[in-house]
Design goal:
Length: about 575
């Protein structure tokens, strides 16, 4: 039986869920139940007959978040809602309308820009090197420009106005940008930004296309609205037309993607654009202990510039926990070893590895923590590594589970047993199938074998969760759930300590979080000096890191890079007034 959309909501969440159709702005602080609120709102609109599920388009910024949204909507008994990333939604629409707007087959998607950029860089004769790092920097600038609706001709003026540091002279980047666009069109391929540009243009310039789209979709929900770019806002405006059936959810305290074109102004100006909008503030933090919440509030309240829409003060709703710890170390190796030792203690005390994270400002900081954890035999996972459902052992396991459902398998799915699948607990059946793929009762030795084993165990534990929530679930239902998660890139939890940079930790949470390397020049990053806006974004990065922790939070820094080195580093200015 589907959940009641209004069950278990607090006063503010209920106000957001029950708000009438039309413009609604939900200012949702970290840990306040944002995803629950917007999925319940969609379910409530469907249940009360305001909109059909297929008329709802919900967009967010990661495939994981979109997948989680679809999973929660299914639990609420709401199917056929389109919950996608901006780019996935645009790709789907563009493929449908392309024959009518452009003609012929849709141009293929260019997944990697570097090869074309290397050709263009040689053609225009840039004086700067064209190594992979240089090309990645240029690619980032082109992505920022297109997301900001800045043409190649206007790029030098735009970066000067934004006081944006560039990896090479702006005129050179503009020349590469112009050549790249020309070469890309000659090859008849699209990049990810083109998906949005062409979708917006099709709706803006073809009234029949716009009318067909708007007849199909009548209700829009935008998650993480503080991170929309001018290009994404242009697409959203094209989707809406003259209508205002729009719900946006965001938190300007978590705006951390300005370098990629994100502009929190759209969230801050929402009620000015829609004067009749309903505004709801979610401030009850259900994720973190009062001790963690208190530190988060102190971090963000020290910001020098906080617009009125950003002044959300979180109120912790969980029971008390330990105070956050602050630790200074002589050098980075000592810091990493101490963090690994604390993690070892947590694991021995029963904290699951998947509930522990080490977060840092830049990916280059991960190496020394990889070594320290490996030295203690602690399995770790790097965020941004190979996608779960693309792993060979996972793909093989899914094939075996599908074969067990259809009754075709080169081996009996339940070893040495004649018991029918339907009469055995789901978890038992799944473990029997996965045993032939390498799942054992105890983990194997060796990092590679252990990693494969953890992937299989994650599938088995997902079966346990499904059986607990849906008592009549069978193997077919599990395979359908796995297929839906694979399409949505929404993997189950895999055991292993997470190593991640602060940007990639956005939207995630753990029981224990270690924020490491908190020194001047790293957080805040050195190139933020001289720009108040960039410095405030660095502060928001720390705020995001703090709010990832549910119960235990440890902050640390080292005074020198190498052992025996000069202790000349200074802890981050953002810790001033926080360290006991």
């Amino acid at each position: 039986m589907a959940l009641d959309p209004l069950d278990g909501l607090d006063q503010e969440q209920r106000a957001a869920v029950c708000a009438p159709r039309g413009p609604v702005c939900v200012l949702a602080g970290a840990g306040t139940g944002k995803t629950r609120t917007i999925t319940r709102r969609i379910a409530q609109l469907v249940r009360t007959g305001h909109v059909a599920p297929g008329q709802v388009l919900a967009v967010t910024f990661t495939t994981r978040a979109a997948g989680e949204m679809r999973t929660r909507l299914r639990e609420l008994g709401v199917e056929r809602v389109q919950a996608r990333t901006f780019h996935a939604a645009a790709l789907r629409q563009l493929r449908y309308f392309w024959p009518r707007v452009v003609g012929g087959e849709p141009w293929p998607l260019l997944e990697h820009k570097l090869r074309l950029l290397a050709q263009v860089a040689q053609q225009v004769g840039t004086s700067t090197g064209t190594g992979a790092d240089d090309l990645r920097d240029v690619a980032g600038e082109i992505e920022w420009a297109k997301a900001s609706l800045v043409s190649a001709a206007d790029y030098p003026t735009a970066v000067a106005a934004a006081r944006r540091g560039t990896p090479m002279p702006a005129a050179q980047i503009a020349a590469i940008y112009a050549g790249y666009e020309e070469l890309k069109n000659r090859h008849r391929v699209l990049d990810f930004e083109d998906l949005l540009l062409h979708t917006a243009a099709a709706l803006e310039e073809r009234s029949a296309v716009a009318q067909e789209f708007r007849d199909r979709y009548r209700c829009f929900v935008v998650d993480e609205y503080q991170d929309v770019t001018p290009l994404q806002q242009r697409v959203l405006d094209a989707w809406l037309g003259a209508r205002d059936d729009l719900t946006v959810v965001g938190d300007t305290n978590q705006t951390i993607y300005s370098f990629a074109g994100a502009a929190s102004g759209f969230l801050l100006e929402f009620t000015r654009r829609f004067p009749d909008a309903v505004t709801v503030r979610l401030h009850r933090d259900y994720r973190s202990t009062p001790q963690v919440v208190s530190l988060a509030n102190r971090v963000i309240s020290a910001a020098r510039v906080r617009p009125a829409g950003a002044r959300l003060r979180l109120e912790g709703q969980r029971g008390a926990g330990p105070e956050p710890s602050f630790t200074e170390h002589d050098d980075e190796a000592t810091e990493a070893a101490a963090v690994a030792a604390e993690i070892d203690e947590l694991l021995r005390a029963g904290t699951p590895a998947a509930e522990i994270a080490v977060l840092y400002r830049v990916n280059a900081q991960s190496g020394i923590y990889e070594q320290a954890l490996d030295a203690r035999g602690i399995l770790f996972l790097l965020r941004g590594g190979e996608r779960f459902f693309h792993r060979p052992e996972v793909r093989a396991a899914l094939r075996a589970l599908r074969a067990a459902v259809t009754g075709y398998s080169p081996h009996p799915p339940v070893a040495e047993s004649t018991v029918e699948l339907g009469t055995v607990e789901l978890g038992t059946v799944v473990r029997a199938v996965l045993a032939r793929q390498g799942l054992t009762a105890q983990p194997p030795t060796g990092a590679a074998a252990r990693s494969r084993w953890e992937s299989l165990r994650a599938l088995a534990e997902l079966a346990d969760d499904l059986a607990a929530s849906t008592p009549d679930a069978d193997l077919g239902r599990l395979v359908a759930e796995l297929d839906a998660r694979a399409e949505a890139a929404y993997p189950p939890a895999v055991q292993g300590v997470t190593l991640a940079c602060l940007h990639s930790a956005k939207g995630l949470e753990w029981d224990a979080v270690f924020l490491v390397g908190l020194v001047e020049g790293t957080l805040p990053i050195q190139y933020a000096e001289g720009s108040q806006a960039a410095m405030e974004e660095e502060r928001r990065l720390l705020y995001v890191g703090v709010t990832r922790a549910r119960r235990r939070l440890a902050l640390s820094w080292a005074l020198s890079r190498g052992a025996g080195g000069r202790r000349s580093r200074r802890r981050s200015r953002f810790l001033d007034g926080l360290v006991p």
